[in-house]
Write a structure and sequence with these properties.
It contains eleven helices and 13 strands. With 297 residues, it is an alpha/beta fold. Helices cover 41% and strands 19% of the residues.
Length: 297
């Protein structure tokens, strides 16, 4: 082979190596396991933090990556409201669950689910409860909320109700000094105060960064009146009888997502930037708060 032909072939060889390397980096989850039709699908339950359609849409890309990596189908399912979803959790219907902190404590106690990861929506991987009011609503401080209407998420909403109510109590506003209304899910509590259906709302501190809120709410018309101390972010848990190797494989996928282009895109749909390792102990610390919160079932 003459020198020009050798150089030309060498250039194409280098290009091919680069393409293979790029594909491996950009699409790391594409062929990690051979699908086995004899293995039953894994059911991935996600609580209705938003409406069911949004939750299934946002979590389906993650389920797809898990399916490819684990070599078996992963199906995303949710339910119409918190109570319906938790009835299925208590019955052990889901193999993997994404749920709030209160639901996790209940799921661990009732069905033995074990936290393995938490979805981080902030650099600290924590979330706080915020009491939000309209700028033009005449509410200047917590005392101004006496006798007023405050909107909360479902009674099983850890941040939007349990934690939000506790911060009001600590600030000198007990439950019997305001009127409570409950919305179908926590974001709707924010819409309630935005639309002047309530004078305040209990929400999670991350709600303002969610695309559904950004598109529908003018944040300049709202302000945070008070905010709670942070607690760990929402967990992802698995059945206690799940095969340890399968649990390990799931964790590998979750913890590596933010290191790759496809994973970053998936996390963006979840309004997050990474998963971190979680354990039962950090959520068990919340039990005393839950026991005094009258959180409902």
């Amino acid at each position: 082979m003459d020198e020009s032909k050798f150089y030309h072939a060498f250039k194409w060889w280098k290009l091919a190596i680069f393409v293979v390397f790029f594909i491996a980096i950009a699409f790391p989850f594409q062929v990690l396991a051979v699908s086995d039709p004899n293995k039953p699908p894994l059911t991935f339950g996600v609580f209705p933090r938003w409406n069911a359609q949004i939750m299934v849409r946002n979590f389906s890309p993650l389920a797809h990556v898990l399916s490819q990596s684990l070599g078996r189908e992963v199906r995303v399912e949710t339910d119409k409201d918190f109570n319906s979803f938790m009835a299925r959790v208590r019955a052990g219907e889901f193999d993997i669950v994404y749920l709030n902190q209160l639901q996790y404590v209940q799921a661990h106690q009732a069905a033995g689910y074990i936290a393995i990861a938490k979805l981080c929506e902030s650099p600290e991987c924590t979330i706080s409860a915020a009491i939000v009011v309209r700028n033009d609503g005449g509410i200047k401080n917590i005392a101004d909320l006496r006798g007023k209407t405050i909107a909360f998420g479902d009674r099983n909403a850890m941040v939007s109700y349990v934690l939000a109510k506790s911060v009001l109590q600590a600030a000198g506003l007990p439950q019997d000094q305001y009127r409570m209304i409950f919305t179908k899910n926590p974001p709707n509590a924010l819409f309630a105060v935005y639309n002047s259906e309530a004078q305040a709302a209990g929400v999670g501190s991350s709600v303002f960064s969610h695309p559904e809120i950004v598109q529908r709410v003018d944040k300049t018309q709202l302000r945070v009146l008070i905010e709670s101390k942070p607690i760990p972010q929402l967990p992802l848990a698995v059945r206690r009888d799940m095969d340890p190797q399968l649990v390990n494989n799931i964790m590998k996928v979750l913890l590596q997502l933010h290191r790759h282009m496809e994973g970053v895109s998936i996390l963006k749909k979840l309004n997050a930037d990474r998963f971190e390792v979680a354990n039962d102990a950090e959520y068990a610390m919340l039990k005393s708060l839950l026991e005094t919160a009258d959180a409902g079932n």
